[in-house]
């Protein structure tokens, strides 16, 4: 008889096996080291060990001795217990309007690194350019007890921001939140940038300009629509506003429809480089050349923009200053409860080869 068959000739019953397996798992599971274990090892009180681990009150020699025992025993602080004791979780929400925008992707990643250096963890979420989803995600992050919420808002005037600010530290990037008690706002001088872009195109002779915008929501810090209409009259140009998604395929479809219309524009000004990439794709499909047949101007100078053919003219925001300002203000508001004055960032023009005079028709 085969020895394996002989060995297992008796039927096995689950009832006989489960206790043995269960006991084995329990015995192999390592018990978590607690402050009480450290207290027993050092002969100190539980309160003294707690103070020592937090670097409070006790002499340096005692704190060092406690830390050495903690390291030897493999003690790890319980984040849940620490959060309950301090009222803080160590997490900061970063709510992006759309991570389909490469610029916002870069900002989110840089904020994650900056917060990590400040001993905070970033919870990065994407509202997919949907105001209703933005409101839902903001509420979820607050319910998860984030110490602060940093937002790149889709709709700065939405009512939910007021509710968020009442429950946690709220910091806004790009746009102020009207009537909301934010801890800090790092905003962009959008009016100066839109004016610069349209004036540049008008000087080159463009009289028909299409402006691609992610949303037609106008606020004091997002005056693109107001500025476009005002300058169009002053510069005697025809400037039309078109809502476009950030994603390349969506922006390409919008650009194709505009270019296929009657009397199409000779230039595009895109309020995100991601949209400009869609315009490039549309020109390729329609057999047009940039800038000979169509000038294209971007807005946030993503690193990819300099690699296009031709390289995309755009406007660069001081990203390092933006991130350091936001992280510093967020941490100060969490730790000290101090609100900061608004900081306004001014972009720097990055002229390249995607803009030129219009083709005579």
Tags for this model:
single chain; 361 residues; alpha/beta; 434 Repressor (Amino-terminal Domain); Rossmann fold; 3 domains; six-stranded parallel β-sheet; 14 helices
Report on this model:
The chain has 361 residues and is of the alpha/beta class. It has 3 domains: 3-77, 434 Repressor (Amino-terminal Domain) (Orthogonal Bundle), CATH 1.10.260.40; 89-188 and 319-347, 3-Layer(aba) Sandwich (Rossmann fold); 190-316, 3-Layer(aba) Sandwich (Rossmann fold), CATH 3.40.50. The protein is built from 14 helices and 12 strands. The protein has a 6-stranded parallel beta sheet with strand order 2-1-3-4-5-11, with helices on both faces. A 4-stranded parallel beta sheet has the order 7-6-8-9, sandwiched between helices. The chain has a two-stranded antiparallel sheet with strand order 10-12. Strand 1, helix 7 (102-117) and strand 2 (121-126) form a beta-alpha-beta unit. Helix 7 crosses helix 14 (319-336). The longest helix is centred in the last third of the chain and has 18 residues, at 319-336. It is elongated, with a radius of gyration of 29 Å. Mean pLDDT is 86; it is low at 1-28.
H/E element order: HHHHHHEHEHEHEEHEHEHEHEEHEE
Overall CATH class of the largest domain: Alpha Beta
* Full CATH superfamily name of the largest domain: Response regulator
Strand content: 15-25%
Q: Work out the oligomeric state of the chains in this entry.
A: single chain
Give the helix level as a range of percent. Answer: 40-55%
Mean pLDDT: 86
If strands are numbered along the chain, what order do they take across the biggest sheet? 2-1-3-4-5-11
| Structural class assignment | alpha/beta
Report the span from N to C terminus. Answer: 96 Å
